[in-house]
Amino acid sequence: MEAGEEFSDELLTQYEERLENEIEVIANKGYIDYFLVYQDMVNWAKENGIQIGVGRGSVAGSALSYSLGITDIDPIKYGLYFERFLNPDRKNPPDVDLDIESGGRERVREYLENKYGKEAVFGVMTQGVYQAKSALQDASRGLGKDTSFQSTLMREVTKLPNLEEAKNLREFFD
């Protein structure tokens, strides 16, 4: 719902039932504090001018995350399912994917360490590993090179016996 938009009785009932269901599942799984810490972190970041993404992945299916301001995506409006984020039958904990601007990550970490203790905070990141072909294609695209450049580069790479010799390919990018 957009700010200032009126709820019909039917829509209000839909939100209430969804939130009651989610809170029951979250409480039964023991994750209430988990959500409150996320809410605290996101609120602090926003209050301190640190940009936070709208929410990514399955967390966007949580009406509680939306109502707490953890995400900015209304799952009911977009027909997203909570069970994809946190299924009552699943043993794995929920995964909240948030994008925090790179300059603000350290400040958020410091805030959390000061509030909850250094021993309670640890960093998690996702790092992708490219295969040679994908890495070269993305690098070519990023440099604004056309597909013929990529084809030439790939032909040269396939001639190399190992990646050590690929260091000599720098001349292609210059």
Detailed description of the structure:
The protein is mostly helical. 47% of the residues lie in helices and 0% in strands. Helix 5 (132-142) packs antiparallel against helix 6 (147-159). It is extended, with a radius of gyration of 23 Å.
Work out the strand percent: under 5%
Class from helix and strand fractions: mainly alpha
Task: Write down the Rg.
Answer: 23 Å
Question: Total strand count, please?
Answer: 0
Compressed to H and E, one letter per element, the order equals HHHHHHH
Overall, the morphology is extended
The number of helices is 7
Largest sheet: none
Brief synopsis:
This protein has 174 residues and is mainly alpha-helical.
Features:
mainly alpha, 7 helices
Q: Topology of this structure?
A:
Layout: H1 9-29, H2 32-47, H3 63-67, H4 105-116, H5 132-142, H6 147-159, H7 170-173
Helix pairs in contact: 5-6
